[in-house]
Fold this sequence. Notes:
This is Flagellar protein FlaG. Residues 1-21 are annotated as: Disordered. It holds the Pfam family FlaG. It comes from Halochromatium salexigens (Chromatium salexigens). InterPro entries: FlaG, FlaG-like_sf. It is a single chain. The chain is extended and about 60 Å long. It has a 3-stranded antiparallel sheet with strand order 1-2-3. The chain folds into 2 domains: 5-46, no CATH class; 52-117, no CATH class. Helix content is 46%, strand content 13%. It is an alpha+beta fold. It has helices at 8-11, 23-33, 37-46, 52-66, 101-117, and strands at residues 71-75, 82-87, 94-98.
Amino acid sequence: MSSSIADISQTAPNAAPVNQLNPRERVEALLEVLPTAGSALAQAESNQAPGRSELEEPLQRVNEVMNDYGVQFELSDPGERLITRVVDQESGDLIRQIPPEEVLRLAERIDEIQAARGGLLSLEA
């Protein structure tokens, strides 16, 4: 997504200033610079999910910013799921975790069952 709304003057150099356009023209000018839904979807599908090593550094930066608010993000080992924790800043006690431990254990168990059986559901006609 290399084009952005800020680049509207570069993509439409002869366009009138936005405040001189009627509402319909404003919307049309905006739609010209936004990517189409299909192209964004195709780009998302063509890209593979980032690996653990690609996520560790951005998560560390987010955690540095959110530390003052008592929020932590981390990757769990099984399945590399993202976990959000709200932690009391003074005591360090866990206030809330999303998803909860029970859900993580359930997801891990489902993954084990699917691996053992080749799939949870059997679709036969």
